[in-house]
Model the fold of this input.
Amino acid sequence: MIWAIRNMDAKKSYERWLSSDNLDATLRKEMEGMDETAIKDAFYTNIEFGTAGMRGVMGAGTNRINIHTIRKATEGFALYIEEAGEEAKKKGIAIGYDNRFNSKEFAFDSAAVLARHGITVYVFENLRPTPVLSFAVRHLGCFGGIMITASHNPREYNGYKLYDDKGCQLVPALADAVIAKVNSIEDELSVSNELNDEQKALIHVIGEDVDLPYYENVYSIQLNPDVDKSDVKIIFSPEHGTSNVPVRHIMKECGYNLIPVLEQCDPDPNFGNTPTPNPEQAGAYELALEYAVREDADIVLVTDPDADRMGVAVKSRGGYELLTGNQSGAVLIEYIFSQMKEKNLMPENPVMFNTVVTSDLGEKIASKYGVETEKTLTGFKFIGEKVAKYEVNHKRNYVFGYEESYGSLIKPFVRDKDAPQACLMLAEAACYYKKKGMTLVDVLEQAYIEHGYYNESQTSLLLEGAAGAEHIQEIMSGLRENGLAEIAGTKVVGFEDFDRCLKGNEEGVSELTGFTKSNVLKYFLEDGSWVAVRPSGTEPKVKVYYCICGTSLEDAKEKAKQYQAFMTKIVA
Done:
């Protein structure tokens, strides 16, 4: 889903911006210092929507996040809303934002652009988690929503997510309709944010009136609210992001012994006290683990800046063990489904959703409890779309959804990943299992014994700028043209190509149905493992996902090293 032709004339676009009287003064100063390479990277294309909306480095240029590209996106969204009619305009749009540079400015500026079109707007008074924005759309009965965030990306990034009336990120068909409107805007510098008094009155500032009902819904996910919490210590870090207030409030109200990493609780857009705000990377846990050792804590919980992802470290025999998103998802599945079954809470025709790059372990655990698993493409919007579908036809009843990328949703009063929910449920699980003499690592190891040993990992190749974008295309095209007969000596016995909508095995090739076209390749190996390759939807990277089966954890890890070494050469 690209906003314009990739090979547009960068220099011409640069000169158009520089000659405009409407150009932001700060951006003008930046542009005046650009060399030819910087101009090409900043203007060679228009920034595009990926798996999580529009996301990129902040700065001047059509391929950057700035006040003008944000206005263009919002103007296109406003035209889309106008086409939906007066009732859509009256229902309005909810807007949230995180702690990043310019997030609040972008949010209130977006509110102004919408109000100029006579659209009602509800904008949060200060930073809020992405799941709270998703909840606000549903709670206020809005036509849609906007979240200004770059999620777990580095501090140089910001982004823009669009939501539908169900609080779900726009799926491709709806996003394409918005992009068509955005493409109709020839000059992003001409989009104004000036308002008259009548238009100003359309903007409503929201806060506690949404927070409190969100909290009440989060409390409702508890399966054992009275579990003994007295001897479990939990270290928590919001990584300078939006979860500081809601997670600490929720955990306090529910009686947990939560110890915050105070140095990482202020909403610092520089992320000054953390090497990275991304729970997928070990640097996000460094200071929290120092707290954990000092306090002899049971678990460490960290969330990314917009609080849709949660990471966990667990005190184990060898110190503190960091769990991957696949592993924490497996632990949550085991706890939630076992308790639902024990308490007779499991509905008829239960269904769990995960993605085509999520480990097979969770699906096996779900099957034990009679829960069917449905796969979606990467991006939680596809899970949200599934939730909405079954909410209407009632053929399945949602019980859990998660991705390998550290995001999950316990109850669908939110339609996006929800770290506050995940924090509360994992804390409850830690207390429950401690009373049984078990850690969360013990729960995971028991799952391996019962369902098989898995090593899940991910590698990526960073390819920035125009040249990087071309190389990413070459890598994916090369894989499709040449195929893979084996990976590190293990035979490939099947494949799925989500772009060409084909699947194949030793018996032949057939149509792959049930998915929107997406640039993803997945290879199934003779030993029960699989490897998937896709360009990132949020960063200039090619990502490779591994789900490796072994006769033991050590065997799976050793095989994973061999597969990773092989694939690293393939995508180099």
User: Anything to note?
Assistant: Residues 325 and 405 are 5 Å apart (CA to CA). The two ends are 25 Å apart (CA to CA). The longest helix spans residues 67-84.
